């Protein structure tokens, strides 16, 4: 089922008495979410992710704009009639019910021709429990499960009515690091197996990048960029997106273009043909540096952090906008380095941005 947001805006009245302006939680959001895909809705806290999800679920009504599931306009349809499955950060299971009863619970609300017998409900719960791999625990209470298992129960409960759209709001935030990794792979597998269009909200860029068919990056209620994770990483439309994606983050410098050459401080680091003389903000990915004794970019070497096969070189440069830069290089390349390190840059890992608008400048 494709999901269409058509110029969706949501404002809330401002509770701050001195400020009469409404809070714009989501601003003019337009996107057609393709059928059967997993979309990661990504951005810092407060950027409007949950509001967007709640507009799709129907828990909130847009101030303006329309929402469609397939060709159905669902803007005025109540959440329980939209055919959605919802999972939140806190699993919100019923503590006095068993796992099976929790999963079956939504089926008990079915009426009329959809009404199911107890035996059919149990069979359906068992089927879904197998899908999310919690079938050995059907007769336990939630308190007798780990956090990851509880979240699987919540996912099973959201899936049991075979929703048209699955909505997940930071579903992994309460899990420890290892379980988060494991559960996100599980979500990806379940999504593939069921083919249910899924919208996955997270503030964690790595999480979104790793499991999404496409990511939507938001800031202050405004969609910044939509695309396949690797494409957005490689071609960020502005400095915010460039900085938000990637660990370690992109290194940011103040630079100048003169006669088709990019300068960082005194160092002429790259040819940038076709760009007229101007000041620029320069982003260089950590993997964009190559250690080279004759390289044009000279840095003070602060530390070398070992990460196994690769090392992270922590270095200083006068044009850098933060205290140090981080370069990920091969461990063999840093042998014998002491006070300084020189780099050559990989052109496709260098991005230029307007110093004022922060929009990307293509070259
Ligand atoms: P996110 O999920 O990305 O952290 P939210 O969608 O929850 O962000 O919130 C987006 C913005 O809308 C925030 O500035 C938040 O304070 C505001 N907001 C959310 N819900 C309400 C509400 N019910 N009343 C007033 N402001 C709200
Ligand atoms: Mg939220």
Outline:
The protein has helices spanning 49-57, 99-104, 118-131, 147-159, 177-194, 205-211, 229-234, 239-244; strands spanning 3-12, 23-33, 38-42, 64-69, 72-73, 84-87, 165-169, 197-202, 214-219, 222-227, 251-258, 261-264, 267-271, 278-284, 289-291, 297-306, 310-316, 325-330, 340-345, 350-353, 360-361.
Report the uncertain regions: none
What is the number of domains? 2
- Count, helices: 8
The CATH homologous superfamily of the largest domain is named P-loop containing nucleotide triphosphate hydrolases
Q: What level of helicity do the residues show?
A: 10-25%
The proportion of residues in beta strands is 25-35%
What Rg do the Cα atoms give?
25 Å
The largest beta-sheet arranges its strands as 6-7-8-3-9-10
- What distance separates the N and C termini? 39 Å
Structural class: alpha+beta
Task: Say what the CATH topology of the largest domain is.
Answer: Rossmann fold
CATH C-level label of the largest domain: Alpha Beta
CATH architectural arrangement of the largest domain: 3-Layer(aba) Sandwich
Number of beta-strand segments: 21
Order of helices and strands: EEEHEEEHHHEHEHEEHHEEEEEEEEEEE
Shape: elongated
Mean pLDDT: 94
| Biggest sheet statistics | 6 strands, mixed
Describe the structure.
The structure is a single chain. 22% of the residues lie in helices and 34% in strands. With 363 residues, it is an alpha+beta fold. The protein folds into 2 domains: 3-244, 3-Layer(aba) Sandwich (Rossmann fold), CATH 3.40.50.300; 251-361, no CATH class. The chain has a 6-stranded mixed sheet with strand order 6-7-8-3-9-10, sandwiched between helices. It has a 6-stranded antiparallel sheet with strand order 13-12-11-14-20-21. The chain has a 5-stranded antiparallel sheet with strand order 15-19-16-17-18, with no helix packed on it. Helix 3 crosses helix 4. The longest helix has 18 residues, at 177-194. The chain is elongated, with a radius of gyration of 25 Å. The model has no long low-confidence stretch (mean pLDDT 94).
């Amino acid at each position: 089922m494709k999901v269409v947001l058509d110029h969706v805006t949501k404002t809330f009245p401002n509770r701050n008495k001195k400020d009469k302006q409404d809070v714009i939680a989501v601003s003019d959001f337009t996107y057609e979410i393709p059928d059967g895909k997993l979309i990661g809705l990504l951005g810092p806290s407060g950027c409007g992710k949950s509001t967007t999800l709640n507009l799709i679920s129907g828990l909130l009504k847009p101030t303006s704009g329309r929402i469609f599931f397939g060709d159905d306009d669902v803007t005025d349809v109540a959440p329980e009639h939209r055919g959605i499955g919802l999972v939140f950060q806190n699993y919100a299971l019923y503590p006095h019910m068993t796992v099976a009863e929790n999963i079956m619970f939504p089926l008990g609300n079915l009426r009329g021709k959809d009404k199911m017998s107890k035996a059919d409900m149990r069979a359906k719960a068992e089927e879904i429990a197998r899908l999310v791999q919690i079938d050995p625990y059907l007769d336990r209470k939630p308190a007798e499960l780990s956090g990851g298992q509880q979240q699987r129960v919540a996912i099973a409960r959201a899936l049991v009515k075979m929703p048209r759209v699955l909505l997940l709001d930071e579903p992994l935030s309460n899990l420890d690091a290892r379980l988060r990794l494991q559960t996100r792979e599980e979500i990806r597998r379940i999504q593939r197996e069921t083919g249910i269009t899924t919208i996955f909200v997270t503030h964690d860029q790595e999480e979104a990048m790793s499991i999404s068919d496409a990511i939507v990056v938001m800031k202050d209620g405004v969609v910044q960029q939509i695309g396949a994770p690797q494409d957005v990483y490689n071609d960020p439309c502005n400095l915010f997106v460039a900085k938000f994606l990637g660990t370690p983050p992109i290194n940011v410098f103040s630079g100048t273009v003169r006669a088709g050459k990019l300068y960082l401080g005194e160092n002429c680091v790259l040819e940038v043909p076709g760009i007229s003389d101007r000041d620029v903000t320069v982003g260089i990915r950590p993997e964009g540096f190559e250690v080279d004794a004759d390289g044009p970019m000279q840095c003070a070497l602060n530390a070398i952090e070992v990460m196994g096969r690769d090392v992270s070189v922590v270095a200083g440069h006068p044009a850098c906008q933060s205290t140090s830069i981080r370069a990920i290089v091969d461990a063999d390349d840093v042998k014998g380095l002491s006070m300084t390190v020189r780099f050559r840059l990989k052109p496709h890992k260098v991005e230029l941005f307007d110093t004022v608008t922060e929009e990307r400048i293509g070259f």
